[in-house]
Protein 1
Amino acid sequence: MVSWTAVVRVLVTLAVIGYTNAQRGRGKPSIVTESQTFNIRAGDSVTLPCEVNNMGRRSLFWFKGEDRRNRELLLQVKYVQGRPSVPASFVSKYLNTGKYALDGTGLNLPIVEPIDAGEYTCSVSWVRQSIKHTLNVYEDDYTDGDTYDDYGYMYNSEDETNPWSKEDEEEEEVESEDDTDFRGRYDHRWRQEDFGIDTFPESREVVVSEGSNVTLTCRVRGYQNDPIWLHLGNQVAEGSVLQLAQVHRSQAGEYMCQVQNQHFQNNSTFQVHILYLEVNAEVSTVEAASFGPAELACVISGSHPVQVEWFHNGEFVQPDNVTLRLHSEGQRFLLQIAEVNEQNVGRYECRAYSDSGRSMAQMDLVPLPSGMMSFDFKSIPSQVPGKLTIQFSLEFDSVDMIQSVEIYYTKAESEHGWERSTLGQDNVFKITERSYRAEQMIDLDPDSEYYIQAKPFTVTGRSGPYEAPRTFHTPVEEVIVSEAPQIHYAEYDYQPQQKEEKSTPNWLKKTLIITSRLPILYRVFGNRLAP
C-alpha cells in the first residue's frame, strides 16, 4: 500500500523540477539581431531592428551617436503586460513629434532625413549586450553623370547634351519671338506644379512642449537650389531641414519653406505650437495685519486647462471655504485666508499642472502688528511748571512679539512739527495671547488739542502701518507743583464729593481732605520714590 508520505515526496520533487526547468527556459535576455548597415534614400522609411529573447522586466534603450559619453538617448522600451511600451517622457519628447516610432522593439524612422545619418545603438540593461546599426542617407536620387541645367532641371550628360541651355534659348528667341511651339517647349521648365515638395511632418503642424527639439523637412524634387526658411517674415535658415533645439515659446508660429528662381516661386507653410506652463507669484512676500484677512495670488500663463494646488510649509492646503478659500480670476489663482495667525504664516507654494508639464511659484506670508486697537490717556501731577503730565495707554494686536513702539505727537496748528517718543521693552507688556500694551508719560500743555500716532515694531524688525492721526484734548487746569502737591482729576476721572458743614472748623476740614487723599498720593508717588 502506497503511503501518503511517498506521494507528497513525489509531488514536491516534480514541482521543484518544473520550476527549475522554467527558470532555465527563461534565462537571461539576449539580443538575437546582428549589427547591420542601412543605405537609405532621404524621404524613405526605415526600421532598425533589435529583437531580444527573454526580455522580462528589463529595459531596452536606443541611442544615437558614436561617442559613448555624448550619445543621445532616443527611446526606452520595456514590456508592460506582454507588450512593448515607452515611458511618457519619451512619448512627449520623441514619438509625438513624428520623428521616431516604435516597431516592436525596433526603432522606426518614418521619413529619413540627411541629419539622421549616423550610428544607432540598441542596448539591454544589466546584461551588457548591445548592437550597433549604421545608417547612411543619400539626399539625391540620381546616377553618375546626372547634372542640372541652367534652370535647375536634371538631365543625363551621358545620354544627350543639355537641350535646354540658355544659349540655345536666346538664339531661338532671336529667330522667332512669337513662335508658340517654341514657347510651349520651354514653359514646363518654370511651371510651379512641376516642382513637388515633400514635407515632414506631412500635416505640416507640430505640437511640442517648451524645451523640446523640433525638426521640419522640406525637400523639393528635381531642383538643385536649397530652400530657405522664413519665420514671421524673417529668414532663419537655409536648406531642406530646419532644426530647432530646445524651443522657446517665442519660436512658436508659422514657418515657411520657400524655393524660387528667376521664373517661379513655391512654398510650403508649417505651424509650430509650443506648449508651456509658467507660474509667477503676484507678490513674493505678502505682508498682512495680524489676525486680519490675507490674500495670496499666483499668475499662471500658458497651456490650459490647468490644475492648481496650494501647499503651506510643504503640506497640502485643504480649503474649507470658511477659514481658507480658493478662487480664480482669469489667470490669477487666489488663496484667501480669513485670519492670519501663528498656524498659517510661513512659506506657501502655488503648484500648477497641465498637459504641457508642471510649474510652481513660492511666496511668504508675513504677519505685521496691527494699528492701535485702543487708546486712552489721563493726567497726573507734573514736575514741570505750566505743564500737564499725560499718561498714554496704547494697545496693539500682533502674532510676533512687539519689541518697541514709536509715538509721534504734535500740537494742533503747531509750527514745530512732530515730536517722537520711543518706548522700549520696559514699557511694552503682553496682556493676552494676541495683545500688547504700551504705556508712556509725556508733559503737554493744558487745555490744548494734540494729534498722536503710534507705530509698533516686532522682534523681526517689521512694523505696523501708519494710521490717520488721532485727536485728543488735554484738561483745562494745570497742576502747580508745591511742597504738598495737589492732585488734578481729569474731567472723566472719579472725584470724591465732600459735604461741607458750617459747624466744622476750616483747619479740621483741610486736615480731613488731605487725609482722604493720602492713598492717592501714595499710589502716584510710590513708584517714583521706590529704589
Protein 2
Amino acid sequence: MLEDQASFPADGRDLEYREFQLNDIKVEHHPNSGILTKVEAFGDFKCHPAHHSLWSVPEPDAQPWQPFKSHLEFDVAEIALEAANICHRCARRSEKFTFRNHKDVRAKWDAASQRLTGFTKDVISIPFTDKSWDFDVYYCDLWEWATNLLHDPYLFPNFHFDAQRMSKFNGQLFKQFVDEPFTAQHFWDAQSQLPGEAKPLTFILYVDKTKLSSFGSAKGYPVVARLANLPTNIHNSQGMGGGYIVGWLPVVKEDKQHSGKPAWANFKVTVWQKSFERILSLLAAKSKMGQWLECLDVIQRWFFPLVLILSSDFEEQLTMSLTRGVRSLWPCPVCLVLHDKLSDTLCCYPCCTSQKETAEEREEVLKAYGLHDVLNSFWALSSTDVHRALSWDKLHFHSGGEWSDHLWVELQKHINEAVCPLRYLLLRCVCLYLELDMYASLEVHTSETISSGRHTHCAFSALLQRYIDKTADESNKNWNFPKLHMDVHIFDDPNEKMHGSLKDSYLLCTNFCDVAEQILCINTWQVVADCIHRRLFKFDEHQHQVHNSEEDFLVNVIDCPIISATNVFHVKLGSKQQSQTFDVIEVAHRDDQAFGDFHIKLNDFLNTLLPSLNVPLPSGKHIHLRGTDEITEYCFIHINYKSMVDWCQHTNYLRCSPLFFGSPRFDCVFIRLTENKVILGRLIFCFECQVEDRRFPLALIHPFDSPTGLCLRKDKDLNFFRVRVGPRAQAWFFH
C-alpha cells in the first residue's frame, strides 16, 4: 500500500531543506542504505543511483569490433547472422577481411560469445511407473550472468542497490508513486529481511511455453531473466541489460496411457521443478550467506540474490506454486480463495506463503489445500516467496482470458438483438473492464491511481455479478474461473517480445534437429552483436569529439543549440506546402464557412495575441493583413508534451491534410483555454504567418464547445464525456 506523507515530517533532520514547491520529488532510501532523504525540484530531478556521482564511464575501446579483425568483418558476420546466409562485401581494402567461408564466420561468433555466460546441458532423470524418463535442460550460471552486467561500464551507472520510496509534492502532501521495481514495497520488504549492510540482487524471471512452428508441432520453453536493480527502460529492452535467455526447459509430451491422471500431473510438475532447480542451483547458497563482490567503483558490496518477480501465464503460475489446477480446492497461486468463490472478486483472502513444512505437516497441508506432493525449486532461495513473486499478467489474464474467452463471447451474443436489457448491462460491464484495463496498463502508479483502480475493480465486480445472476438460468457460461479472480491482485504491489525472434531463429537458422542448442547459440550471437554495436557507437562518438576542430565545435553549437528541459520546443510544423495569398485560400475554400472572412478574423486574432505575448505591434499600429499577403500551409504537426501519467516528455504527431494516403485526415486535439478549462476541437487548417521579421505557427480549429444539455443516464452509466460541435463559422485561431 502506498502511503501519503505530510509536507513537514515529524523528523525532518534528514531533509536538505523544508521549503517545498509544487511537484517537488522526495527520494527516501531504505534505512539500511545509510543514505539521507533528499528533496529535489521536479525540473532538476534525475533518477540516478546513489553511487552515480562516484563513477565515471571510461574511454571507449579503441577496437570495439574485437574479436573480429575489423569493423567490416563484424558487419558481414552480422548480415550473415540476420539473413541466415553468407554475404561477402568487397569494399575498401583499408580494413582487414579474412572470412573465406561459413566456418570462419561461425568460429568468430563463437570466439565473441566467450564474453557472455555460456550454457550448460544437463540430463535429469525422473522415475515414473516402472522406468526412468530422461529430459535435457539447458541453463547458464545466473550469478555469472548478473556479475557480467555489474561489471559492464555502460550499465553499472544505472544500477540501484537500495530500495527507494518516491513521492511528489502536490502542494499539501507528498504523494507516493511507484515507477520502478526498486520503488515498490516488495523490493523494500526484501531488503528489510537482509543484514544491515547487504544489498538485494533482484531477478525477474519470465517463463512461457511458445510454439516455434506454424502448426505448433515444435515448442520451446525459454526462461528469460532480467535484473530489477536496473531501470525498466533498460531491463525491458533487448541486448545487454535487457531480457536474456538463461534456461531452456524440457517440454513433456502427453502420453495417452497416463494423460489426465493425478500421477501423470505430478510427474509433469516434478519434471518442471527439477529442471528449474538446475537453473536456480548456483544462486541457492549465495541467497543464504550472500556473496561479496567488488564493483566498478571499487566498493565491496554484499549481495543476496533473490527472485523478486515471476511473470508467466496462469498455467505456469500453477506449476511454480505447486497448485493442482483450476479444479482444485484452492486454485489461486497467490491467495487462499475457495474454488467456488472465484467469481466473488469483492472479498479479500489470506495470502499464500512459502513456508517449509516437515513431511508430516506437508501431508496435512496437501490434504487440506490440494497441493502437489513435489518439492518447490524456489524453496532453495532465501528471501524468495514464490506466491508473492508471481505477478499479474495483463496479456494472459485480460487480453487472453477475461476478454477474449468471456466478455467478448457474451457481447457477440447480444449484438444483433433489437431490444435487450442484458446487452445494456453487459455494455456497462465492458466499459468498466476497459477502465480497469487502463489503470492496469499504467507504468507509473500513485496512491491516487491505485485507489481509483481498486474502486473501478469493485464497481466492475459488482456489475458483473449482477449480469451473472441475471443470466444464470439461461446461460451455461462458467464465470467461476481463476483469471477473473486474479483481478483482485492487479494492484498488490512485466512481455513476450522475445518469442518472435525465437520463432524466426527456428525457421531460418536451424535444421529442425537439436533445436534448443541451435536457438540458444543464435540468441547468444545476437546479444554479442548488440554489445559490439554499443561499443562501436561509443567509439564513433568519442572519435567524433576528439577529431572535431574548435571551429567545427562552434559551428555545431550555433547551428544545433542545446535546448534545456525548460526551453524545449513545444510545437513544430511539417509537410510544408507552397505559400499562397489569402485571396487564393479563401476562393479555394469558399464553400467552407470556417474560412469566411479568413484574413479579417486573423487580423483580429493577431492584434490580441501579440500584446498577450509581450510582442509589440508593428510600428505600434494594429495589424492589417490584405488579401494579397501570403501565408504558408503545413499538413503535419510535431508536438512535444509532458505526460500527466509519467510526467515525462512524449511526442505526438497530428495530421491536418486534405489528402493523407488517399483520404482526408483532420485530427482532433485538446485545447487548453485557461488553467482549469480544456476543450476538444478538430484541426481545419495549419499555417505559418509572418509579421515583420517574426513567424507565428497558427491553427484554425473547429471547437467542440457547444452546450450539451442535461447529462444523459447512459453517459453516466457508460462513463461517456459528451461534446457537441459548434457552428462551422465559429472556427477560431489558436497559437
